[in-house]
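so ive been stuck on this for like two days lol. basically i have the seq below and the ligand is magnesium ion, smiles is in there too. i just want the complex predicted, nothing fancy, no docking runs or whatever. if the output looks off dont worry ill sanity check it later, just need somthing to start from for the group meeting slides
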Amino acid sequence: MFADRAKIYVKSGKGGDGCVSFRREKYVPAGGPDGGDGGKGGDVILEVDEGLNTLIDFRNTRKYKAEDGYPGDKKNCRGKDGRDIVLKVPQGTVVKEAESGQVIVDMSGDNRRIVLLKGGRGGSGNQHYATSTMQAPKYAQPGRPAKELNLMLELKVIADVGLVGLPNVGKSTLLARVSNAKPKIANYHFTTLNPNLGVIDLDGTKGFVMADIPGLIEGASEGVGLGHEFLRHIERTKVIIHIVDAAGTEGRDPVADIYAINKELDAYNADIAKRPQVIAANKIDAIYDKENDSIAAIKAEFEPKGIPVYPISAVSGAGVRELLYRVNEMLENLGQEVTVFEREYFPEQAGVQAEAEAYTVSYDADADEYVIAGPKIDKMLGYTNLDSEKGFAFFQKFLKESGILTKLEELGIEDGDTVRMYGLTFDYYK
Ligand SMILES: Nc1nc2c(ncn2[C@@H]2O[C@H](COP(=O)(O)OP(=O)(O)OP(=O)(O)O)[C@@H](O)[C@H]2O)c(=O)[nH]1
Ligand SMILES: [Mg+2]
């Protein structure tokens, strides 16, 4: 199955905690602090892999996590950095924040490799916290938290040319005739449900890529008949071949059909409607009614509007070469740039910190210490210089306002008891 959408969860690595340690040397009673820094957490990286053309792997595995940084060690040893995780995606994958649907990055054009989520920085070891008044800091900085995101990956085919039209008009037949692609062809509506890509080799040209888009119907721009799913694939094509059943084999009026489809394109995205278009009036081998010349009618209606009309038979091949050379010429006049979607969502700025901002307060009977833990404390301690008077006042205010003091009292804390938060221990006084 052609998987072109997948929802996944990614998380970067947490930074390793800084270490609290003191030098121990012979004949030196109290050595200075020598706790090393924690290592950096691994990043979540996206990379284009030319060999991939579906998102199927992401349907099987949905969680991706980079490695946490390792904690620092004594003797100023820095912790090892956590391993990055590299997600390989096909070119043309648009990465969106799952809930808002905002674009984070479009892996096409120059975007070959990007760091989606950075790992947390490692915390500084206690060696950094020695000051003239505090020679033996028992505090080391915790590593920065990990970040997480829910992503929607969407593969939007990158084709130069899109074949657009009602169901059953011969889009797949044309693609199969002129390219290496082998799409399913059948005489019923919605035979094609996922786009097929084919490479068109034309003598004396660079060639181009053409996509056979599933049939569109009236109301497609409002989602009728999976319209949105299908229209999405046209967004990146540069030239549109609008195929119509000129023989009216289903008793329809080709001119009205062309207007109906163009109306849907315009309603979905006005930009698409403005792209250069060629009309391929198909199934001319099946025109028996010489009285009503449908080709002349289509030409009379659309050529004055600057839309060229090519009568073809995708079955016999009549007129197909002329059509393709014209399309190639239009592409050459357009230049090479691809539509790349702009970034709308910035993980670094949004609140995507892993884990809720919770903390826990407990009593550790073995150590006879009260223990406070949680990412909020982590963060707070990391930013506060407790050696300064201001910093310490801020810290006390935080303990009070966050409700931590109340919790400690509920647990029965008394003056002089020891409280532990990460590397930091202090005595409690009301
Ligand atoms: N006589 C004739 N029949 C054609 C021609 N092109 C396609 N057909 C027939 O039309 C029917 C539909 O062709 P497809 O190529 O599957 O049409 P499609 O536009 O891809 O249809 P969907 O995928 O359902 O949107 C098949 O029975 C084809 O054999 C043509 O040039 N002449
Ligand atoms: Mg088809």
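DSSP finds ten helices and 18 strands in the chain. Residues 254-268 form the longest helix (15 residues).
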